[in-house]
Specification:
Layout (H helix, E strand, L loop, with lengths): L25 E2 L5 E4 L4 E6 L2 E2 L7 E2 L2 H5 L2
Antiparallel strand pairs: 1-2, 2-3, 3-4, 3-5
Length: 68
């Protein structure tokens, strides 16, 4: 069982893709979200598990979309 607050295993980034645009994902600096620039969404990471549901994602701000 994953302890509460455990970070996501970054190896998952090699195999995960955005379920909307099928593009790559980037782990946010604070490691709480997976960012999809292609879809303009940020998927939450809860207890080390990425929640890859569009209904759970938040829309990126204009600044976040432009940030490289």
């Amino acid at each position: 069982m994953i302890a509460s607050g455990s970070p996501m295993d970054t190896k998952l980034l090699d195999i995960l893709a955005c379920p909307i645009c099928k593009g790559p994902l980037k782990l946010s600096a604070d490691k709480t979200e997976l960012i999809s620039k292609g879809a303009g969404l940020a998927y939450p990471v809860r207890d080390g598990i990425p929640v890859m549901l569009e209904s759970e994602a938040r829309t990126l701000t204009t600044d976040e979309r432009l940030d490289k």
